Amino acid sequence: MVGATLVAPSAGELIHEIVLAMERGLKPTHLSTAIHVYPTLALGLRRAADNYTLKHLVREW
Questions:
Q1: What gap in Å lies between CA 27 and CA 11, rounded to an integer?
Q2: From CA 56, how far away is CA 59, in angstroms rounded?
Q3: Rounded-to-integer distance, Cα 60 and Cα 15, Å
Q4: What's the pTM value of the predicted model, to 2 decimals?
Q5: Please, what's the largest Cα pairwise distance for the chain?
Q6: Which of 2, 12, 16, 20 registers the highest number of CB atoms within 10 A of its CB?
Q7: pLDDT-derived band at 25, boundaries 50, 70, 90
Q8: 49: exposed, middle or buried (Cβ count in 10 Å: 0-12, 13-18, 19+)
């Protein structure tokens, strides 16, 4: 993951997961498979990572 921009009223609650992914060199697919507590704002990040993962799986087929 190279970087991210979050524009939301609660962006401060979401950015920590992106920072961790960047520091550890993780891919969006890693965020997609991580367990996220429900319901939270971070679930939105998982859904975005899910969409990324699905697009790349379809390309491989």
A1: 20
A2: 5
A3: 30
A4: 0.56
A5: 38
A6: 20
A7: very high
A8: buried
